[in-house]
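Assemble and predict.
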Amino acid sequence: GAGVSQSPRYKVAKRGQDVALRCDPISGHVSLFWYQQALGQGPEFLTYFQNEAQLDKSGLPSDRFFAERPEGSVSTLKIQRTQQEDSAVYLCASSLVAGSSYNEQFFGPGTRLTVL
Amino acid sequence: DQQVKQNSPSLSVQEGRISILNCDYTNSMFDYFLWYKKYPAEGPTFLISISSIKDKNEDGRFTVFLNKSAKHLSLHIVPSQPGDSAVYFCAAKQFRTGANNLFFGTGTRLTVIP
């Protein structure tokens, strides 16, 4: 399909384990976003890429969270030494161009992370 | 600090009637507003948007109203259909400042009863 894909769809980790979540954006989309959605909440912004450049990481909750997009396409969100409060759905979104207000973000289905 | 608020966690409406979902925001720098619809196990999908230079935007059965002085927007769905049953998120962004990320509300679960 031509939509945003994420893998894995579900991840169970033991506390202290490192995890890596993958996002494949829509081909040709310049902008890529990561959001965290806790249970019963709306998505909260984590970080933003324009091509390979990480232009905003103000939403990353701690230095245990790291994101990269080395070739300006696929992105990986890595969480080191996972904690129970990291349990959430992690959503990736992409959009065609940067900066325009008339610029829809297309979301993937998310990765549900459960930390035991 | 929740900058976008949806105070009704759920709403039930009879098929064919109007659904009205409400959203309030606190940040006066927001100048673009969106509604997203989310089905279980799927990501949010864009539904309709409105710029702060307008007070109404209509797309088929969906209309969004913006009241800047009250910092309030609403989504009207008429007539409501069972397939509209989903969680609806209100979102906002600051286009003029160059920020790209969206600020979301906590969502309203709409159930349309056949």
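Chain B touches chain A through 27 residues (CB under 8 Å).
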